[in-house]
Each structure stands twice: as C-alpha cells, then as structure tokens.
Amino acid sequence: MPRILVHNLDVPEDVIDTNRHVNNLAYIRWMQDIAIMHSTARGWPVERYVATATAWVVRSHFVEYLRPAFAGQRLTLLTWVSDIRSRSSTRRYLFWREADRVEIARAETVWVFVDAGTGRAREIPPEMRETFEVVTDRDPLRASGLVSP
Predict the structure, then answer these.
(1) Spans of the chain below 50 pLDDT
(2) What string of H, E and C letters represents the secondary structure of the chain?
(3) How many structural domains are present in the chain?
(4) What global pTM score does this model have?
(5) Residue 125: which domain range?
C-alpha cells in the first residue's frame, strides 16, 4: 500500500482550453480521481464507503499552477495525506512532467469526513486513521522514488 500514490496519465485533447493548454477544471477532476485511487489502494474503495454510509466531501481546494501542460504530454500525478484531524484530512498533490523534469502544479484539498445519510461531519474512525499514513516529507518526488536523493 503506497504512502504516496503515483499515477501516470497522457493528457487528452478534450481537456485543452482556448489558451491551448490543460484547463484548470481538468486538474480538479484528476485530483479527485487520484484521491479515489489512493483510498482504494489503502483499502477504502467506494464500495466500503457505501457499506459504512460514509463519504468525504471537499471543504477547500488550492491549486498553484506553475507551468502549462499540453495535449499528448505524459504527466505523473502524486498524492498523499499530509494531515489527519478528528473530522478532516488534508491531501496534497503534485503534477510533474518527467520529460523535462518540471513541476506543472501543486495542490491541496481539505476533505471532511461525513455521514452519507445526513451530510454532517463525523469522527474519522480509528481503522481509517490507521490506514492513511500521514506523509510529512518535504520532497514527494524523492520520497516516492521518482528522483534520486
């Protein structure tokens, strides 16, 4: 079970905007997709949330766009949990282009754990807290093994 989930994707043409680079909404969608992949890899697939009548909802997103990405380029996405509190968790993301070894974007989402029936925040159960290891590494590319120390 990876502490930092690494996922590669090839930028499709349909996410390119009028400025001829990846639209900001694509980054948000990719952030959600990789968060679900990481949760699944850690033993919490969507079906487990449904069975426990729980869910995560977004309190806030922050995205810092550093460089544009274009159709056909391969991006490497990384995500990890950087903080867990009693009812919320902070997840970080890094978008990296290996071809020229540059960071494309950095992002963060504060997720709130909720009761799926009421939508109200609830305590994160111990079995979930134990599943999601908090990563405090300052350099996720090195911590994930993508670049050498």
Answers:
(1) none
(2) CCCCEEEEEECCHHHECCCCCECHHHHHHHHHHHHHHHHHHCCCCHHHHHHHCEEEEEEEEEEEECCCCCCCCEEEEEEEEEEECCCEEEEEEEEEECCCCEEEEEEEEEEEEEECCCCCECCCCHHHHHHCCECCCCCHHHHCCCCCC
(3) 1
(4) 0.92
(5) 5-143
